[in-house]
Amino acid sequence: MDKKTLQDVELKGKKVIMRVDFNVPVKEGVIKDDTRIKGALPSIKYVIDNGGSLILMSHMGRPDEKGITSDTTMKIVADYLSKMLGKEITFVADCAEADAAVASMKEGDIVMLENTRYHKEEQAKCKQKDGESDEDFKARKAALKDQQKVLAQKLASYGDIYCNDAFGTAHRAHASTAVITKYIGTSVAGFLMEKEIAFLGNAVEKPVRPFVAILGGAKVSDKLAVVNNLLTKVNTLIIGGGMAYTFLKAMGHNVGNSLCEDDQLTYAKEMIEKAKSLNVDFLLPVDNIAADKFDAEANTQIVGQDIPEGWMGLDIGPKTVELYANAIKNAKTVVWNGPMGCFEMEKFNKGTFGVCAAVAEVKGNGGISIIGGGDSVAAVNKSGLAEKMSHISTGGGASLEFLEGKDLPGVVALSDK
Ligand code: AMP
Predict the structure, then answer these.
(1) What distances in angstroms separate CA 186 from CA 163, 180, 403, one per listed residue?
(2) Which of 169, 193, 239, 389 makes the best surface tag, with the fewest CB within 10 Å?
(3) Contacts of 137 (CB under 8 A, 6+ apart)
(4) pLDDT digits 0-9 by tens, 360-370
(5) Predicted TM-score (pTM) above 0.85
(6) Atom nearest to 337 CA in ligand 1
(7) How close is the Cα of 135 to the center of ligand 1, in Å?
(8) CA–CA distance from 220 to each of 242, 259, 338, 342, 351 (Å)?
(9) Which CATH architecture describes the domain 6-194?
């Protein structure tokens, strides 16, 4: 990687302000899944073990909408992490408390700041209001950006070094993820960030071939740029999930009541043509599980590429699973983002789990398998095959933007080696 990492800096006696992704699911004050907390442990321990002290910050949930509640305060995570590390963590609820706690920090101390999105200037989101003139909107936006700089400066004042280990928010240019780097000497990647970039970056830019990408999920419109970019990189592009029906309709098939975006038909045709001209195998379902309603108890039938009137495709069929599995097993690099069907319902989970089983064989065959976040991660975890994957990304949105070929602001802002 061409960006500095924690291993490139002297940490002894230094205060490190670290952006982590502790956006964990919380219900009634209880953390329901600590994967993200565990993910940040290597960087946290490395700083402490090497004589640094640590100021941790993250967002969690949406406190910008409701204010801080018992489910969006970072105090929950501070207590949880403290138990995990067997070490006291000072939680600070506001800037005054943070100023005092940071000023009295000693080597090895950890301070945890309150939810970064408690401050609206963290994201500095700004939409034009009804009736607001362009001029007023522009002025309001500029003022908010100025406030964002003030917040970033404040956060930067707490540390000697900035470390970003929050891959999940690296696609956002927020005060704590990117703007802060303008006001602090050195900005480095944490270990989790480094690992994510190494896996995704190598897969896309220097793939060992054959390179197969699998895209699924509900909508084509969410993955337009991913399809377009990956077509120039892969040997085979596999499409499943709701998005497959827009492509099937573009090829002249009937899709019945399946999810279909008619405004994307021209784009879908273009992508099929682009695949042909680039010699990319573009695989679409050859059979489907059709249902008479969107329901776990629906009547179902296996159909070909045409979905009968009044029915909807909710999963890929068994022949398609076989076709996809063969392409996947022979690959040396596989990237998967998005389920093949409505895998949350048992009647429609065979496609996703069938593909999951094939992806799980890739590592054993000497290849690399990367799961690109979101629902595919949930499916992999549910299948119990997580251990068999080379890399499971922690950032759904960020990994998608990476696959689109976009630069991530949180990565770009780090110091070059
Ligand atoms: P996404 O967030 O775009 O990755 O979409 C994931 C969602 O797409 C999951 O909740 C799936 O249930 C849903 N999905 C997958 N296949 C279909 C389908 N054929 N029809 C409707 N929804 C689907």
Answers:
(1) 8, 10, 28
(2) 389
(3) 126, 128, 129
(4) 999 999 999 99
(5) yes
(6) 4
(7) 41
(8) 8, 10, 11, 15, 18
(9) 3-Layer(aba) Sandwich (3.40)
